[in-house]
Sequence to fold (261 residues):
Amino acid sequence: MLSPAMTQPYPRDVRRRLSLTSSLAELARVSPWIGELAAEFGIPNETRFAIELCLEEVLSNIVRHAYRGEPGHSLTVEFAHVEGSAIFVVEDDAPAFEPTQPADVIPEDLTTIQPGGQGLRLLFRFADSVEYERLADRNRVILRFEIKRD
Amino acid sequence: MTFASEELDGGITKVTLNGRLDIEGAAAIDLRMNVTAGTAKKLLIDMREVSFLGSMGLRSLVLPAQAVKRRGGKVILFDPVKMVEDVLVASNMQAILPIHHDMAEALAALA
Fold:
């Protein structure tokens, strides 16, 4: 379900774009790209950390689950600097998948917790907003991070 | 991501991680973490030089910790930087992967 913020127009003043193919090895290109953006737009270290954490989660989910590890598909990440926020728009052409916030379950026992179930929790904790839109044949996830100065 | 291990007094195995525990970093240490966890009973993971922790990296800590725990052992994370600790806390992992910032306290907790 779209949040009220989705009524805002998609930011058109996109400043940067990163095109990736569907392999986990490709995701190693994201951190240096974020580093360049951080230097150029004065994004502080804590915000940069949150951005990298959330993009790793979204992109790796697409590669591993939406594309089922198949190579050759495309993903794009677009960045815009809008009113004190860093906006990242991730698009893929996989079947529809809306990231939703998982229930906040506190693991009781080290031996029974599911180590792979933390990614979406981290995504919703570290991004200031997470929005999803299903386009005609694409998924679009919009992540917003308030740029808090150190 | 680099991995180093050493045996301390009291049967404690200390693993020192250095670098980014992202997808690439997790892949680099998984095998050695699992081998270490296969024999260690008291495992201290030195997190001071880990600059990034994502969900795949979290898995690289939890799975070995589960292996140690199943054999009746203990695992402690030592002195992660603030943002790494924030990830652990947000994942509710600090309750089962306890964090210590003082080495003497960490060693005492493993004794």
In short: The mean pLDDT of chain B is 95. The CA atoms of residues 9 and 32 of chain B lie 21 Å apart. The longest helix of chain B spans residues 55-70. The radius of gyration of chain B is 12 Å.
